[in-house]
């Protein structure tokens, strides 16, 4: 495990595992003993997708799944916004859940993209309690993404 200090209040952990990267931003609080953690599963395969997005026992979190491709220019715009918002522990769903982010490269995981009927990129699908609850297609701005998250 590699631990890199990003700024005084946040530590970034990066773990490389079988074909994908797990990145976890951990916010440190001064007067509280526990840490708040949002996880990013970048370039997830179908097994990781199922484990994170479709697990009904993860009732304390919502999962945003970003279907993208390297050649997709709008994807290059929205992906950093999704990473930023899901790393911010003040950004929560309307029901108060924190967010995890899973990114899926549709060129390598095309069967998964077909299963969720991804027809345009970027497509972002939200999951709660292991079920798809909402989605949007296209590169939204930060304000529009915040509104989408607030509806979850």
What does this structure look like?
With 152 residues, the chain is of the alpha+beta class. It has 4 helices and 8 strands, in the order E-E-E-E-H-E-H-E-H-E-E-H. Strands 1-2-3-4-6-5-7-8 form an 8-stranded mixed sheet, sandwiched between helices. Strand 3 (20-27) and strand 4 form a beta hairpin. It is globular, with a radius of gyration of 15 Å. The model is unreliable at 1-36 (pLDDT under 50).
In whole angstroms, how far apart are the ends?
Answer: 33 Å
- Secondary structure class reads alpha+beta
Rounded mean pLDDT is: 82
Question: What sequence of helices (H) and strands (E) makes up the elements?
Answer: EEEEHEHEHEEH
Number of helices: 4
As residue ranges, the low-confidence spans are: 1-36
User: How much strand content do the residues show?
Assistant: 35-45%
Helix content: 25-40%
Major beta sheet summary:
8 strands, mixed
Based on CA atoms alone, the radius of gyration comes out at: 15 Å
Across the major sheet, the strand order is: 1-2-3-4-6-5-7-8
Shape: globular
């Amino acid at each position: 495990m590699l631990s890199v200090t990003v700024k005084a209040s946040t530590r970034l952990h990066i773990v490389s595992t079988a074909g994908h990267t797990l990145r976890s931003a951990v916010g440190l609080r001064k007067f509280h003993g526990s840490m708040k953690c949002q996880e990013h599963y970048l370039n997830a395969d179908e097994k990781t997708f199922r484990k994170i997005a479709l697990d009904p026992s993860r009732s304390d979190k919502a999962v945003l799944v970003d279907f993208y491709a390297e050649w997709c220019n709008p994807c290059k715009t929205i992906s950093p916004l999704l990473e930023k918002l899901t790393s911010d522990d003040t950004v929560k769903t309307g029901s108060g859940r924190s967010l995890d982010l899973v990114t899926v490269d549709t060129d390598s995981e095309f069967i998964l993209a077909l299963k969720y009927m991804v027809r345009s990129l970027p497509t972002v699908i939200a999951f709660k309690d292991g079920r798809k609850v909402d989605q949007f297609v296209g590169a939204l701005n930060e304000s529009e993404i915040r509104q989408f998250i607030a509806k979850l």
